[in-house]
Design a protein that fits this description.
The complex is a heterodimer of chains A (114) and B (109). Chain A has a single domain, classed as Sandwich (Immunoglobulin-like), CATH 2.60.40. Chain A has no helices and eleven strands. In chain A, strands 2, 4, 5, 6, 9, 10 and 11 form a seven-stranded mixed β-sheet that branches. Chain A has a four-stranded antiparallel β-sheet with strand order 1-3-8-7, with no helix packed on it. The radius of gyration of chain A is 13 Å and the shape is globular. Chain B is mainly beta. Classes of the chains: A mainly beta (114), B mainly beta (109). The interface between A and B is medium-sized, with 22 and 20 residues.
């Protein structure tokens, strides 16, 4: 399996500030994704992190609000910009490899905006 | 990616067998059926995947009828630790996963 380390695991932030979440994988992966999960809800895909090019965002998510980097095959960051209380959620990193038939998920980052 | 429908919630007791059924009427020929389990404060984890008939592993069994329009995840002799949300997916790709609502399973002593 792929081991994913997400940092920070949780944070409390002031509105108007930004937080960058890191996702580190223990092996090279083909695809990396970022999800958001609001309390009691299912996961919503934010974007696909593409190595060497701009991320591909899902409907309702934009680069200015959620800039994403993926400098190599094992690392990605998601920034939540200009935060408001509505951004309070769990943010999860997910990866897949060509040889696997499943996706692997990090433990998530629990963000609270006050 | 086929739309899936599964019960919002289910309750059971320790030691019972739990069957969660998922409907995927518009499943495509190259779609696989995959189930993920999510415990509170954790990311989802893969449980089982199948294409047709029956698949069994150390965690669960997956039953898929010939028409593939539905599937049933079977958890034998559940314990309190099986309390989780279970997601059913019908897709040809293991990568970009679009999650449905899932089934919230509660196990009681």
């Amino acid at each position: 399996s792929a081991v994913i380390s997400q940092k920070p695991s949780r944070d409390i932030c002031q509105r108007g500030t930004s937080l960058t979440i890191q996702c580190q994988v223990d092996s090279q992966v083909t695809m990396m994704f970022w999800y958001r999960q609001q309390p009691g809800q299912s996961l919503t895909l934010i974007a696909t992190a593409n190595q060497g090019s701009e991320a591909t965002y899902e409907s309702g998510f934009v680069i200015d609000k959620f800039p994403i980097s993926r400098p190599n095959l094992t690392f990605s960051t998601l920034t939540v910009s200009n935060m408001s209380p509505e951004d309070s959620s769990i943010y999860l990193c997910s990866v897949t490899r060509d040889r696997d038939k499943q996706a692997f998920f990090g433990q998530g980052t629990r963000l609270t905006v006050v | 990616l086929a739309k899936t429908t599964q019960p919002i919630s289910m309750d059971s007791y320790e030691g019972q067998e739990v069957n969660i059924t998922c409907s995927h009427n518009n499943i495509a020929t190259n779609d696989y059926i995959t189930w993920y389990q999510q415990f509170p404060s954790q990311g989802p984890r893969f449980i089982i995947q199948g294409y047709k008939t029956k698949v069994t592993n150390e965690v669960a069994s997956l039953f898929i009828p010939a028409d593939r329009k539905s599937s049933t995840l079977s958890l034998p002799r559940v314990s309190l630790s099986d309390t989780a949300v279970y997601y059913c997916l019908a897709d040809s790709s293991a990568s970009k996963i679009i999650f449905g609502s899932g089934t919230r399973l509660s196990i009681r002593p």
